[in-house]
Amino acid sequence: MNVALAKTDMKTDTSRALSEAFANVRERLPGTGSVAEVRQRALESFEQQGLPHRRVEDWKYTDLRTSMREVLPLAAAPDEAAASRAASILKSTAVKGARQLVLVDGVYAPQLSNLGKLEKGLAIRTLRDALETGGEAVRDQLLSSKQSTDPMVSLNTAMMTDGVVIEVSEGAELAQPIQIIHIASGAVPAAMFTRSLLRVGNKAKVTLIESFVAADGAKSYQAHDALVVSVGSHARLDHVRLMEDARDAFNVSTAFVTVGAHSHFNTFNLTAGGQLSRYQAFIKFAGEHARVETNGVNLLNGTQHGDTTLFLDHAVPNGASREVFRAVLDDRGHSVFQGRIIVRPDAQKTDAKMMTRALLLSDEAEADNKPELEIFADDVTCGHGATTGALDQSLLFYLRARGLPEKEAQALLIEAFVGEAIESIVDDNLRDIAVGAARRWLAARG
Amino acid sequence: MTALLEVKNLQVRVEEREILHGLTLTVNPGEVHAIMGPNGSGKSTLSHVIAGKAGYEVTGGEVLYKGEDLLEMAPNERAAKGVFLAFQYPVEIPGVATMNFLHTALNAQRKARGEKEILTPDFLKKVREVAKSLNIPQDMLKRGVNVGFSGGEKKRNEILQMALFEPALCILDEMDSGLDIDALRVAADGVNALRSKDRAMVVITHYQRLLNYIVPDVVHVMSKGRVVKSGGKELALELEKSGYAQFDDAA
Description:
The complex is a heterodimer of chains A (446) and B (251).
Chain A: H1 3-10, H2 13-25, H3 34-49, H4 64-67, H5 80-93, E1 99-104, E2 107-108, E3 122-126, H6 127-133, H7 136-142, H8 151-159, E4 164-168, E5 178-184, E6 190-200, E7 205-214, E8 221-231, E9 236-244, E10 250-259, E11 264-271, E12 276-285, E13 291-300, E14 305-314, E15 320-329, E16 334-343, E17 351-360, E18 366-375, E19 381-389, H9 393-401, H10 406-422, H11 428-445
Helix pairs in contact in A: 3-8, 9-10, 10-11
Chain B: E1 5-14, E2 17-27, E3 32-36, H1 43-51, E4 57-65, E5 68-69, H2 75-80, E6 83-86, E7 93-97, H3 98-112, H4 120-133, H5 138-142, E8 144-145, H6 151-165, E9 169-173, H7 181-193, E10 200-205, H8 209-213, E11 218-223, E12 226-231, H9 234-242
Parallel strand pairs in B: 3-10, 3-11, 6-9, 9-10
Antiparallel strand pairs in B: 1-2, 1-4, 4-5, 7-8, 11-12
Helix pairs in contact in B: 6-7
């Protein structure tokens, strides 16, 4: 039997169309020479695997072969109308006091971004610029994802069009948070492929906010994003990601994070938007005594599908990681949480714990929790837990007996429930931002 | 004068089992009624039906509050109209700060009545005053609702809410359960401070002891889902001596 042929036959129209899309735009994609070669190999890797489906264990609950029915053409550079729609949504999305770096339909928008008065030790440029003229180190790091065999990462590598490259040099403690805002604004359905890089130098300190939103009038779109991060030794990164894409949007995003010795990485992801989304974070302990808190919340209703997949790789001894995840699901919302912790043979004294809880507000909602521990060292402290349940009726009655209408009583209990994940955000401002996003979801529920 | 609460021939089932078999009770403004009776006589069922808890099927009779059909109203509407149940076992709500809960609840009630929301400074002032009178420390108000509270603290928190929401009808369900004599006295003082000519109270209890502190105008004895005897406060003392067994036949 010709296996290669069989595989080709299994490919869906969608993945064939993606390959064609690449052929159409490859000449316009930034980077030549080795960059173009990496793109080509990544595309081949994607073509070989096709869109991930339920028989691929890591994608078991998010089968793109059945749910990603059409592939959209690469977004055109935003026209004036799209830019003005983007400017309008930016007003309510921009976090006060933060430095905004804005991508509109996958393209860096200088007129909406703020590159003024860069603090000492901070350098920012676009992905396009970095791929075309950047030094080898930056390029290699941007392309480090080529080690991944994940087909959606390969697709992003092949197609990445723009993004921001942020470098924070050793010892620089940035007072001003950086906010990367992805705005979908196109009037025709389209796909965007973005990739950004954040290098936090040794002993540096950075706060990063990522926001995904749609401008009024944006048509259904597909966002493919990747974020590559390195946190130097004794460095600290506080990170909040808010995915509040349009209700008909598709978003697959991947974070690759490497944390150095004695560093501290506190990260939180909230998924409230999108029709179909996946956020996957691969976090690798590269130096000893690093601490990582990865927390997240999925708030889904209607027919939304949101997948949060985390992979903590304890490759060295003395690392500590905590994962606290909460999902709130109404209507036919479907949440997936996969959390894998791997403790490599050398990673003695690893301290890793993961807890995921889902709250179902409707009989038709679904939560899939898949915590996994793979431990190859013998002197470690590891644990995980998962629960799924409904709102406690006795608590609801108590609140209603005190005058709270049903939705308000639910909202109070839901906020307390997701608060268990939000409270592990160390930075006060970031915590408020996360609470604000959760409240927006609750308010939209009515 | 319209009675504040009129329970007429109330019949209630829980999962096919009839708990109340035709209960009748009338409470006028300004009155304090005590309902006494053994375990399983239906006292708590009555309080839950008045507050609107789910799981009770009313198969006959009616409950009027200020002449309106109470059973038609959602629990939160009842609260907004002035019905308050002090729970026998107040629940713990982790993650919901007591202060936030009190503020949200008070404003929800005001909004339902078409009144303006209370401003935060006015609210804080009011809570502090009431809390002080009930010996409730400020740090308790910052914690999750009833989380880590002792039995006495939970009951005081119920009375704090009663004072804050200023209901017309207060149902106190076994307020004395789990309280030592000092905690009971503080709680009872809090309740007595709220007695007024416009407000009625229904005090549900097993024991006469509580009625030494909250002296009722009327005492009812419940047995097997009915009120079998009503009288003045001396009826409670009589019960303490002779027990409930004498009413078994009457029911």
